[in-house]
Write a structure and sequence with these properties.
The complex is a heterodimer of chains A (287) and B (367). With 287 residues, chain A is an alpha/beta fold. Chain A has 9 helices and 15 strands. In chain A, a hairpin with a 6-residue loop joins strand 1 and strand 2. In chain A, helix 4 crosses helix 5, helix 4 runs parallel beside helix 6 and helix 5 crosses helix 6. Chain B has 12 helices and 11 strands. The longest helix of chain B has 45 residues. In chain B, 43% of the residues are buried. Chains A and B meet through helix 2, helix 3 and helix 4 of A and helix 1 and helix 10 of B. The structure holds adenosine-5'-triphosphate (ATP) and magnesium ion (MG). Adenosine-5'-triphosphate binds next to strand 2 and helix 2 of chain A.
Chain lengths: 287, 367
Amino acid sequence: MNDCEQRHILRATALTKVFGEGESQVRAVDGVDLQVCPGEMLLIMGPSGSGKTTLLTMLGGLLRPTSGTIEVDGVDITALKESRLTPVRRKSVGFIFQSFNLWESLSVQENVELALNMAGVGGRAASGRARTLLEQQGLGRRLQFSSRNLSGGEKQRVSIARALANEPRLLLADEPTANLDSKHGREVMHLLRDLSRSGDRAVIAVSHDQRIREVADRVLWLEDGRIKDIGQLVRDPVCGASVEMDNAIKLEHEGRTYYFCSRGCSWEFQQSPERFKAGAATSSVTA
Amino acid sequence: MTVPLARRNLFAEKGRFAISVAGVAFAVLLILIVLALYRGFNRTGQTFRDLPGELWVVQRGTSDPFHSISLVERERLDPVASMPGVQAVVPVLARSMNFDAGGTEVSARLMALDVPADVVSDELRERYLPPEGAVIIDDTLRRKTGLTTGDTAQFGTESLKIERVRPRSPEVLFQFVFVNFADARRIFGVGDVVMYGMVILEPGADAQTVAGAITDRDPALQVYTKEAFAASIAKEMDETFLPVISILVAIGFIVGAAVVGLTIYTATIERTREFGVMKAVGGSGGYLYRIVLSQAAILTGAGFVVGAVGAWGVARLAIEAVPEFATEFQLTDLAGVFVAAILMAVLASFMPVRRINSIDPAIVFRA
Ligand SMILES: Nc1ncnc2c1ncn2[C@@H]1O[C@H](COP(=O)(O)OP(=O)(O)OP(=O)(O)O)[C@@H](O)[C@H]1O
Ligand SMILES: [Mg+2]
């Protein structure tokens, strides 16, 4: 940790975002402290509406925090003017989205090339680099394809190649697997993990997806905008949801305790325990 | 070479692109045709520039050859002939007149020149001086009336034969019919009064000096240079047509700008998210504006080319159907419309650019 203190890629301090005023005020993110180091893959989880996307949007310099500070790649971006923020987003951050967000009128290769063009790289240099990145993603045969006609998994790999175009040190991914089937979702998660391992990079991913947990170095649980040190997070063997051990519905079966998100799930378990027994798991979650 | 995003975005909707280009082309065509027609009509009076006389002597107070009447006794012109710098004075009879062209009444401008024998040339005879009993018409009048060489037509009391058809002249409103001077005297019944004296100068003589001398000597006369005489017609036309033309051109411009604006605006709205992604991944404002401006420029450029070619084609076809459809395309007009098209593109980009400004890049993380 001390080592990371010196070399962190991202540091957020007392980060807070308040939407609206008065009655309808929402503290979407509330006093989050966060530090990410090179080689790390951080997973942010939490219930819907807990502020995950809002947090990620601020970390990427797309949304100004109400208070607190953000430092990306050694630059304090909290108070930067939009015109100074743009180059930071271009060079230091790569974005990966749930709905891919490709430029649909462009070919696969052009999608990556355009990101390079924006950073002032053009011509052969841009097309060469775009090709290399896409080949690394196994899309060498799809370069001239219209990006509109790709499968979901292919689209996400194009968007990863695009995010990597300008060699950012920080990759931010919001629900990168939500629109993919489990096979392609896993593929993408392993890809992200490998990316965090190789090079001087870190990945922050937001997900509901239990499958992702296994690849993360660290899982951060967000609830009502705050990071919760819940110690133990357990998996509902029926529906697969993550539940806090303290709040979960407990059931003893053959000497083992199982945890459920709802009565419905525990009832279903009781009907045929053999079907679900293997799905239970626990893991620790810390800030 | 960078990714041609503007072109890709436009061509992604080929049908809409084609319709939009057609819309701009239509606007450009309208503007160009109106301007060309104006230029064409503005050449009314060209006959006065083509005739050999440098000066036109008229009755004082005559404003122009088409709308006011000039009556000059012939003997007033005699002294002019012997003035320094004057080679000859040609008495001219002219008036507009309806005549019977095989059942239809047609209006034309009859003109007869009494050219002194020592200045008559074959060329003059060919163009302006028919023998007695004959007239020379131009091709526009031939097409309007169906009269052609060898036919006869009734001018007042006289039945005259078409001697020759001159090539199309730029006279759009009234075509000139050149009549033999003796016939004209009978038709007009004016005795020794003529309308104008057309003065042919000696080589090297100064037109202004001669004109001054003529009016000094006879204050009942007024003198126009041929340029001023022809321009007096154009001035009249300008006063009538310019306001109308300005409105038509303005409408064309607005239509063009609206088509481009609407197209680029909808294309921008449709791709709000994609523009948002560009902002998010570090596209600067300037970069995005350039995309919008390039889209507008491509659209207007294509529309301009199609419109210009179309205008030329329409003019070609129209003159076949309507003999008076006299158009003249001037390079300055084309350049002017090009500049207007650029302005159109810039204006049309205004709304889309505002729209782009208002896109919040944070939307990219919202599903
Ligand atoms: N632009 C906004 N204006 C007002 N409220 C907002 C805005 N964006 C988010 N919120 C609110 O902030 C809270 C957190 O939203 P956020 O999208 O960050 O949650 P999330 O954890 O990403 O949820 P999900 O898992 O469903 O994607 C929600 O209550 C949401 O309604
Ligand atoms: Mg979210």
